Amino acid sequence: MPATFSRPRRLVVLISGRGSNMQTIVNTVREQDLPAEICAVIANKASTLGLDWARAQGIEAKLVAHRDYASRSEFDQALAQVIDTYQPDYVLLAGFMRVLTPEFVERFNGRLLNIHPSLLPAFPGMHTHQQALATGVQWHGCTVHFVTPVLDHGPIVAQGAVQVLAGDTPESLAERVLGMEHLVYARVVRWLAEGRVTLDTMQRVHVHGVGSRSFVMMPDNGQSE
Ligand code: GRF
Q1: Which of helix, strand or coil describes residue 187?
Q2: CATH 3.40.190.10: does it fit domain 9-224?
Q3: What are the residue ranges spanned by the domains of the chain?
Q4: What's the 125 CA to ligand 1 centre distance in angstroms?
Q5: Is 116 in the active site?
Q6: Of 55, 44, 40, which Cα lies nearest the Cα of 85?
Q7: pLDDT score, position 48
Q8: If you measure from the C-alpha of residue 190 to the centroid of ligand 1, how many angstroms do you get, rounded to a whole number?
Q9: pLDDT confidence band for 117 (50 / 70 / 90)
Q10: Which of 8, 97, 145, 201 is a plausible cystine mate for 154, CB 3.0–4.6 Å?
């Protein structure tokens, strides 16, 4: 186990929409009384349900609207400056729908994590559930990973798998994957808060004291005969 912190780990969560993953993170920290604090929730769009929810929870909620900036780089610089004021140990992307510049990623290297709705390296980018159905995979899911300058590609912390069932639509599959996202991100946040997660010089993830970093959801029905 790496050196234990004498203080709670400081978390900043970035969202773009409803923020269900962010809500899971907040609820996990509070319900499990983890040695962590959610210093701020930051959104890049004004009309985000997640910001209202965070405010109602008494969490500092900030808007840094990307449309207020002339370029991606200027937005990322403004966002990074706001994040720095909280001095976070980790910055968690949770339904954050922006591609970040390499400069931003480097600035938070080793502290920036994301959840992607596929079993990476399969299906990077958008419309992952449509991609899964189109290619006929029988397993789909989500990945929590450290963010690197290459999109949806960084060192994997944990993955959760769900079966693809006959008759699945992108919507039904997305709903099942989202449930698994909440499970996986909640567990990763606990590991982060407990100081278990390290990234070695070869960019390999180690979660000390944890034997398995994979989760599987099996539906009650739909089992093969
Ligand atoms: C989730 O599937 C997440 O993986 C993707 O955006 C979706 C919405 O997430 N990036 P949330 O409900 O806003 O957390």
Answers
A1: helix
A2: no
A3: 9-224
A4: 13
A5: yes
A6: 40
A7: 79
A8: 19
A9: very high
A10: 145
